[in-house]
Amino acid sequence: MAEQKSGLVPRTPAESATEMLELVLPNDTNNLDNLLGGRLMHWIDMAAAAAARRHARRIAVTAAMDSLGFLHPVHRGEQVVLKASVNRAFGTSMEVGVKVFSEDTATGELFHTASAYLTFVAIGDDGRPKPVPPIKPESDDEKRRYAAAGERRAKRLARG
Ligand SMILES: CC(C)(COP(=O)(O)OP(=O)(O)OC[C@H]1O[C@@H](n2cnc3c(N)ncnc32)[C@H](O)[C@@H]1OP(=O)(O)O)[C@@H](O)C(=O)NCCC(=O)NCCS
After folding, report:
1. Structural domain of residue 109, as residue ranges?
2. Coil, strand or helix: which one is 104?
3. pLDDT tens digits along 50-84
């Protein structure tokens, strides 16, 4: 799935990569003292929005979030690290991947808790979608994510 010709200078995923840290407070938890799924979805949306906005250098709105699985519970008092990066930019839309970790603050070890792919659309002052710069993947991981993002977009468009 080829990018549209925007004439904008390509940017690397590293230029907009965003790391967000949240502390799980009592108000973020359910009756089992575990992080609420809805709260985590909000944090994922915020981390992804920051990466999309940094890449587009304009406001970007959430158009879609792909399926989200919760791999294990996160407990009250733990820290949550969210790593967001733009996998690929198309015409006016971008796919942002967010990987969520809970952090063992005693050891610094990170446990993979959830992953999500979101589509953001850059919006101009007139409220309409605006072209975004292409992504220029550099590392092997960035190239793999770039290729996979193209396949996921094709499936999304086919689903309608
Ligand atoms: C996202 C939105 C701006 C798209 O507007 P639109 O009039 O459909 O614009 P277009 O048809 O020109 O599509 C613009 C881009 O969005 C993409 N897009 C639109 N709906 C999409 C969806 N459901 N999933 C993935 N991509 C989507 C299109 O593929 C296109 O991408 P491209 O330019 O890279 O090819 C519009 O639907 C909107 O404002 N939605 C609400 C966003 C919002 O408020 N989010 C917060 C949560 S409620």
Report:
1. 13-159
2. strand
3. 999 999 999 999 999 998 989 999 999 999 999 99
